[in-house]
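ugh ok fine here u go
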Amino acid sequence: MLRGMTARPDGPAGAPGAAPAPVNVVVGEEELLVERSVSALIAAARHALAADDGLADPAGMVSPDDGTGAGDPATTPGDIHDVAGGSLAVGELTSLTSPSLFGGGTVVVIRAAQDAGKDVADEIARYAADPAPDAVLIMTHAGGAKGKALLTSLKKSSRTVQMTECPKITRFSDRLDFVRGEFRRAGRVADEGGLRALLDAVGSDLREIAAACSQLAADVEGHIGEEAVSRYYHGRAEASGFTVSDRAVEGRLAPALEQLRWALATGVPPVLITSALAQGIRLLGRVGAAPRSKNSAALAAEVGAPPWKIDRVRQQLRGWAPDGVAQALQAVAEADAQIKGEAASPGFALERAIRRIVACRS
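structure:
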């Protein structure tokens, strides 16, 4: 029997040195996080199997790809089965969780359990209430309406079932937290500017974000900040009017002019840049006029901007006075009129406006 195989609802799935629960359910649609959780659980189960046969590394968890053999499916004792929920037949789960002829227990992974048929789902629920003693069952479930009855039944078996939530990461603040976590996993720290620059450059895909964090952690010596991120991902960054606007209202003249030239070179229409500058400065005025005690969510709803943007604008407000905001808005209006009046050099009009905006900060 696998030693210590009890549910750990308060612990992370597959935590080093922790035996997995008899039944483990990874719920959510964030594929990268689901895959990581499943891999960690498989590694934990392999370690438990190896421990029962005296093959585990006494120092702790055996990595599935550490080359020692204990994490290798070919050398780990017992069987490992990986099946799709939709293809599972009635009675097959009993067969898969039966003890191996060669000993060592069994690990069964059911992907997309929400796709299982009703009879199979009922069988899974019954198994979860009374799991086999020498088996670890790992399932993934999207968490939506499909297969909801199965998920509800599994949650009732809290003594034997451990749930791991992997919800879709959609909010900017959550992606920031994810990036912080990735650098922490690598033993590194990036400052706030570096975190935001990385998300601006790479986008919202979690796999790409994770790969970018891994590369920066491995290649950058010392401080990981906005400058380091720009060296690696400048060519991929979305050169937009909003990037130009952010740099200008922060009083960072050189980066603002650099982003302006890059935006124009990559085909961003000048009128969109003036529009972004105007929006950025108006937002400075509206947020600056609001009480400091007003929380970001309430103010965001009032001005029509996301809460993270309100937090950023409050940081950008340092150095701005009401008169300066008004003068900056006038500079943008003049540049907009010149561009729409088909000025000979829209780039020059924009550059002059940015210089004036930066000079308006007190």
